[in-house]
Every structure is written in structure tokens, then in C-alpha cells.
Design goal:
heterodimer; A: 340 residues; mainly alpha; two-stranded antiparallel ribbon; 14 helices; 2 strands; globular; B: 254 residues; alpha/beta; six-stranded mixed β-sheet; five-stranded antiparallel β-sheet; 11 strands; binds adenosine-5'-triphosphate; binds magnesium ion
């Protein structure tokens, strides 16, 4: 039971970071970022593709990326085992790196869609993200592709039974920081103009705002935050396999979480993420029992998809505002007026 | 008087349909210009071209002497041109107050500055105060926290006006601002327009309700089938336009 709780906390944290950043892009700014998975992949690339290469170079080991990583990481893990701070330091470096790369990628990612309205925007982002995903799967020299690549063990100093909890704790800290950051960033004129852009781009344009600039900045920040989740996930699994950064898990699920929790509401999103994660974790644990009991004639993984598809339709149909509806952006003077 | 806005021979086609033909108008500084004309005569199309929402096929638009033809709307806003829409364009999920606040730009709309309170809080206080005053004037105070999507058509129209009044631009373009607004308030709005005029703001207005607006305007253009068929200036000039047989025919023909 404790293991289940640990899993739920861990996945809650990772998914919250993805969902809260997608919420800024989609819930606030109205950008249908169907390529959200790309920002998570960027986090993985920063660890597997960049950090690992840096370690290989630093320790001067021989061999290609996949082989070299194994040796370089063995060395790194020894150091972390002796000096716990080195592990934390490595984590922070990776996150900083991923945020910078994510920021740049997010900004470039939205460029081809400069002239597009929302409908085409989503499809374009999906296509770009899928293309990069496939390249990363089949080109082993980026992050080891389908073959996989190991990552440094940032908790090499911790005894086995505590590791899961420490990791869950780290993930929750970053999730909480993401929440605080988004609340601070979005309860401002910036958050308001993003919502206005979502409601009507033409009005916002007629009142002097540059839509493209708003989109670019939003996608840059959203991708930088999303990349943090990619880093945490990569360190958690200890082995990055490019195939795991699918659109279903890292784009569609976060969309569902937002719609369920309440788009445009960072607290609502937390509720949506929690609800989903609990369902995912339990489904995953009991999928074979469920298959037995209900005589389901197909792979139980499809059960998850079907269930989520149905939930999505039900929410959109019966409760489009989600569990906690969005609230006006509360700057101090607006708050005063609302309380009068 | 100094010229503020001038269009020269604007022509605009929608496919094969000619919506505007060789339209030339002038608005001077501190002037209220009115465009009238039957439905479909091209009035809205003209201001869409002026405000950059539509691109002209030929012709030019000058503002303060500079060529602004087919500029992007966001740049025109920074030149000092603000507009309202004939069909209200409320930001539906935003409150009435928020809808007005979008009328003016706050430095805190940049994400980097948003994180530093003191870079935008003072401006925000100012803008909220101004918005509250405008809502008071438009008799919308009781709806300040209501979602704009829940308002009636007439109330949405007023929100449009309120948003345009949030800054002190050089030119405010209004497309049927008082359609569906009660006569008393309509007169108050136009009295306010006169006050703003003395503060140096010009107006280009489309409006059908001549009975209300006639006494507030300085210049009148009549459009028909995408062309300006006649124009007049000052009390005498406007009177002559209204007595013009072509104008009488169009209006009686309706
Ligand atoms: N986007 C468009 N595409 C095609 N035709 C258009 C478009 N916009 C306007 N029109 C046509 O151009 C003509 C002029 O329209 P416009 O809206 O400018 O008229 P108006 O004078 O504002 O009329 P109203 O008094 O009804 O508002 C009309 O015949 C209209 O059908
Ligand atoms: Mg019109």
C-alpha cells in the first residue's frame, strides 16, 4: 500500500509539472499545444543527450554515446555515493540545462505557425512534435533511441528502501515550485492578456498587442517548465528509452487532466492530475485482474485509453469548466474590487 | 484645422464583389465625423480597412501625414487609433472589468516584468481606477465582476465603448456605438464625446440614429454601394447633405 502511495505522489508531481505548464499554454493562452510531449522529450534529451555527453567528455571515457554513458555513469555514481551533494548538484545542472534548451525549443517550435489560427496551430504543433519524436526513436545517436540509455543515479548515496520516497519528495518540491511560479506569473496583467488572447485574438490585436510575441514567450516558458518533468522522469527511470515519450502519455493525458480539473485554474489542474494519476496507478496494478474478471478480449492497456476517451467526452459535454472553474486574474486592485 | 486621417481612393473587393470604390474621406483634429448609408453600403468595410483589420486592394490611408495603408492593427493602436466593433466582441469568459482593462497596455504584460510587482502595480491601480470611472459613467458599475458573455447585447455594446475609452488615443473609430442603447444614455455618451473632443481626440463614427447624433457632429459622409456619394461640413454643410435629393431618395427608398 505504501508503494502505491509513493507511486501516486511521484506521478502526481511529474504530471503536475507538465499539466500546469500546458495549462498556461492552453488553459490561459488558448494555444492548443498538441505537441506538449516535445517539451518532456527535451528534458530527456538534456539528460541523455547532453548531460551524458558532458560526463563522457569529463571522465574521458571511450566509446559511442550508449557504451560511453555506461562507463561515465558508473564513475559519476561512485562520486555521488560518496558525496550526496554531487547528486543534488547534478540534478540542478540538468534542470537548468533542460530549461534553457526547452525555452529555446519552445520559441522556435511555435514559429512555423506565425500566421495560423488556433485550429491549424494544434495540428502543426502535433506534426512537428511527432517528427522529432520519431527521429529520436530511430536515430540512436541522440538519446539512444529505442535501445535506451542509462542516466546517472542522483540518489546513489541513499539506501534502497528510502530511494523511492526521497525521489517522490524531490518531484513534489519541483511540482510545488512550478505551482508557485505559475500563480505568481499568471495573476498579473500577463495572465490576463493571455486569457484575452484565448477569447479573441482580433480584439487583443486591435488593442496593440503582438500576438506572435505573446505566443512565443508563452511557449518558451511553458516548454522550459515542461522540460523539468522530462528531467525528473529520466532520472527516476534510470534508463531513457525514447519510445516512452509518446503523445498519448505526455500530451493527451495532460490535456485530459486539465479539462477534468478546470482549465485556467492551477489548483483545479492539481485536482485533475491527482484524479487521473490515482486511476492510472490502480488500473496499471490491477489491469490483469480486471481483464480476468470482466473477460476483456483485448490488451488491458486499451482499457485505459477507452476509459479516458469516455471521460473526456463526458467532461466536455456535461462540465466544460472542469471540477474547479477558472477565476478572474487577481491583481491586488482587482482583488479589492471583487471583494467589495 | 489640421488633418488627422485621410483616405485616398480606397477600393476593396470581396472576390468579384466591389465593396468599396474610390473612397476618400478626411477627419481633422478635434473633429467628429459621421458616416451614414444604407445596409451593405460598405461603412464597416471602410473602417476595417482603416483600422488594418482588412487589406485594401488599392488606395492609401494617411494618419498624421504618414502612410499607414494596410498596417497591422496592433501597430495602428500604437499610432493612436482605437476602434469598436459593430458586432460586440466581448472577451466572454473575462469579467466586465477585465474587458475594459484590455483596452490599455500595462508593462506587466511582459512575463519578465510580470514577476516584479513594482514594475506594473502602480499602472494597474491607475487603470482599474479609470475603468471603474468609465463603468460608472456607462451605468455598468453593478456588472463589474460579471462575465462579459452573460451581458445583454446593449450592455456588450457599452463595454465596447468603455474599452475604447481606456486610453487617450488620437482617433476613436466607432461602428454603430449606440445601436440598442437607451436614448438618454446615448445622449450622455455623445456629450462625453464632445468633452473628449475638446481634449484633442477625434472621432470617426458610423451610426444610423441621426435623430440623436446630428447635433454632435462636425462632418457628414454618405455612402451608397461602396462609394461616398456626398459629404458636408459644419451646420450648413450637413444640412445641405441631408436635403440632397440623392440622399433623400436613398433613405426614403429604404
Ligand atoms: N468578409 C466579407 N466577405 C464578403 N463580403 C463581405 C464581407 N464583409 C462585407 N461584405 C459585403 O460587403 C458589403 C458591405 O458590407 P459592410 O459590412 O461594409 O456594410 P455596412 O455599410 O457596414 O452595412 P450595415 O449597415 O449593415 O452594417 C455587403 O454587401 C457585405 O455583404
Ligand atoms: Mg456595418
Amino acid at each position: 500500500m505504501m508503494d502505491i502511495l509513493q507511486l501516486i505522489l511521484l506521478w502526481f508531481g511529474i504530471y503536475y509539472i507538465v499539466a500546469v505548464s500546458l495549462n498556461m499554454e492552453f488553459g490561459y493562452a488558448g494555444i492548443p499545444n498538441f505537441g506538449k510531449a516535445l517539451s518532456v522529450l527535451v528534458g530527456a534529451i538534456s539528460v541523455g543527450g547532453i548531460l551524458n555527453r558532458l560526463l563522457i567528455w569529463y571522465f574521458g571515457v571511450k566509446g559511442d554515446l550508449i557504451e560511453g554513458s555506461t562507463f561515465a555513469i558508473a564513475r559519476m555514481n561512485e562520486i555521488i555515493a560518496a558525496h550526496p551533494l554531487a547528486g543534488i548538484f547534478l540534478l540542478l545542472i540538468a534542470i537548468l540545462l533542460a530549461m534553457v534548451v526547452g525555452f529555446v525549443v519552445g520559441m522556435i517550435f511555435i514559429l512555423p505557425s506565425a500566421k495560423l489560427k488556433a485550429d491549424y496551430l494544434g495540428v502543426t504543433l502535433l506534426a512537428i512534435s511527432e517528427a522529432i519524436f520519431l527521429v529520436c526513436v530511430y536515430n540512436l545517436s541522440i538519446i539512444g533511441g529505442y535501445y535506451g540509455i542509462s542516466t546517472p543515479d542522483i540518489l546513489a548515496f541513499a539506501p534502497g528502501e528510502k530511494r523511492g520516497w526521497i525521489f517522490a519528495g524531490i518531484v513534489l518540491v519541483f511540482a510545488f515550485l512550478s505551482f508557485l511560479f505559475m500563480e505568481k506569473l499568471l495573476n498579473t496583467p500577463y495572465g490576463r492578456v493571455l486569457k484575452a488572447m484565448r477569447e479573441n485574438e482580433d480584439v487583443v490585436k486591435c488593442f496593440g498587442r503582438d500576438i506572435m510575441k505573446l505566443r512565443m514567450r508563452t511557449m518558451a516558458i511553458g516548454s522550459a517548465i515542461g522540460a523539468i518533468a522530462g528531467v525528473l522522469y529520466s532520472f527516476y527511470t534510470g534508463n531513457i528509452v525514447a519510445n516512452s515519450f509518446t503523445r498519448v502519455e505526455w500530451t493527451f493525458f495532460p490535456f485530459l487532466m486539465i479539462l477534468l480539473g478546470g482549465k485556467g485554474n492551477n489548483k483545479g489542474v492539481a485536482l485533475g492530475v491527482l484524479a487521473y494519476v490515482i486511476v492510472i496507478v490502480f488500473l496499471d496494478i490491477y489491469k490483469y485482474d480486471i481483464k480476468e474478471i470482466f473477460h476483456i478480449p483485448f490488451e488491458p492497456v486499451w482499457l485505459t485509453y477507452i476509459l479516458f476517451g469516455i471521460t473526456m467526452l463526458l467532461i466536455l459535454y456535461y462540465k466544460p469548466t472542469g471540477l474547479i472553474p477558472e477565476r478572474p486574474v487577481k491583481t491586488p486592485p482587482v482583488k479589492r474590487i471583487m471583494e467589495d | 484645422m489640421k488633418e488627422l486621417l485621410r483616405t485616398e481612393g480606397i477600393t476593396k473587393y470581396f472576390g468579384g464583389f466591389r465593396a468599396l470604390h474610390n473612397v476618400s474621406i478626411n477627419v481633422d483634429e478635434r473633429e467628429v465625423a459621421l458616416i451614414i448609408g444604407p445596409n451593405g453600403s460598405g461603412k464597416t468595410t471602410l473602417i476595417n480597412v482603416i483600422s488594418g483589420t482588412l487589406k485594401a486592394d488599392s488606395g492609401k490611408v494617411f494618419f498624421k501625414g504618414a502612410d499607414i495603408t494596410n498596417q497591422e492593427p496592433n501597430l495602428l493602436y500604437h499610432c493612436g487609433i482605437v476602434r469598436t466593433f459593430q458586432t460586440p466582441q466581448p472577451l466572454k469568459e473575462l469579467t466586465v472589468l477585465e474587458n475594459l482593462l484590455i483596452g490599455a497596455i500595462n508593462p506587466g504584460e511582459s512575463p519578465w516584468k510580470a514577476l516584479i510587482y513594482r514594475s506594473w502595480l502602480k499602472k494597474e491601480e491607475e487603470l482599474v481606477e479609470r475603468a471603474i470611472k468609465i463603468l460608472d459613467f456607462l451605468k455598468l458599475s453593478h456588472l463589474v465582476n460579471r462575465k462579459a458573455g452573460e451581458l445583454s447585447g446593449g450592455q456588450m455594446k457599452l463595454v465596447e465603448i468603455g474599452r475604447a475609452l481606456m486610453t487617450r488615443p488620437k482617433l476613436i473609430i466607432m461602428d454603430e456605438p449606440i445601436a440598442g442603447v437607451a436614448p438618454g444614455l446615448a445622449h450622455e455618451i455623445f456629450s462625453h464625446i464632445l468633452v473628449l473632443k475638446t481634449r484633442g481626440i477625434s472621432f470617426l463614427i458610423i451610426e444610423h440614429r441621426l435623430d440623436i447624433v446630428l447635433s454632435y457632429i462636425d462632418r457628414l459622409y454618405v455612402m451608397f454601394n461602396g462609394e461616398i456619394i456626398t459629404e458636408g461640413r459644419g451646420e450648413q454643410g450637413i444640412k445641405k447633405v441631408l436635403e440632397d435629393p440623392k440622399v433623400v431618395e436613398i433613405y426614403i427608398g429604404e
